[in-house]
Amino acid sequence: MERVAVKAIVTVTLKSGVLDPQGKAIEGALASLGFSGVDSVRQGKIFEIEVQESDPGRASAALSAMAEKLLANTVIENYRIELVPGKDIA
Amino acid sequence: MNSAVIVFPGSNRDRDMIEAIEKISGRAPLTIWYADTEIPAVDLIVIPGGFSYGDYLRSGAIAARTPIMPAISERAAAGVPVLGICNGFQILCEAGLLPGVLMRNASLRFVCREVHLCVETSNSVFTKLYHPGEVIR
Questions:
Q1: What pLDDT, in 10s, does the model give residues B62-109?
Q2: Torsion-angle region of residue A13: left (phi > 0), alpha (psi -120 to 50) or beta?
Q3: Which of A19, A24, A69 sits opposite B103 (nearest CB)?
Q4: I need a surface site. Which of A22, A85, B101, B102 has the fewest CB within 10 A?
């Protein structure tokens, strides 16, 4: 039987209102490079994850559990999961 | 007093901790590796400082989810004092044994200054020799 991997992108961002000094530093650096009109920068993290799972529902559930248990600290961070469809592994 | 010092990959203050505990209590603490799942009966568990897992993901995040942690939570629930210093404190927060989360300094500068601590309660094994409201430095 063919094994199917689901590829997912999990994006973790700071909740709005949580101070982001790294984003602020990048914002300042952009301004000093001459990029005008940058209103704000917030920094986050992206995880590209491949899961051996043919059922998108089960893959989604597993990825949510991963985000809740490890990838995000839900006290200060939000996460978003996007499944990238159709990747077959022979 | 019997104690245990927990060591993670990247811990680097474990040897100071072992020496300090031995000097104070007269007994060398047990050293427990993070991959173990059991802790012998001890009166104190210490998580020393360092850079467990190179601070990857978030400081303390990966260490807080290693095999030894359920045993620490169990002992804490049973009333055994658990002391986390520096990265050890971050690990305890990430493990949910302490409330809240550590955030980056708001200023973009390195901060190195003396701070004063106010004793909020003396009803704790760590502060029982102080008085509430006392300021220590």
A1: 999 999 999 999 999 999 999 999 999 999 999 999 999 998 888 878
A2: beta
A3: A19
A4: A85
